[in-house]
Amino acid sequence: MLSTARLVAIVPVRELDRARRFYQETLGLSPADAPEPDSVLFSEDGHTGLQLLLRPDAPASELTQASFEVPDVEAAVRELEGRGVRFEDYDLPGLRTVDHVLTADGMRAAWFTDSEGNVLCLHQLTG
Known about the structure:
By secondary structure, this protein is α+β, with helices and mostly antiparallel strands. The protein is built from two helices and ten strands, in the order βαββββαβββββ.
């Protein structure tokens, strides 16, 4: 039933202008028509999207809000580091990164936070 439905991840942000600049200028996303005031929608293909929704009192989430599939995690990490993004490193049971990248069965991933403290991920499918 939902296989052809449009999917939009909604990320709460405390300062909409700051967040818009981060997603547009730092991550390189293109804004589309926002479905409601106090929000910004980014959609590259018109089918999936990421919507920033102004919520001044919302706390940043410690859980991953969205993950971007990329062809090469290391290259994407280097490019975003060049734009000022700081990536996380983890050394936990079942989650250990080396140079910011987790290697697991069938995937590689790296995590960072947006301008509002929300956790985002880059992931690469490897098999």
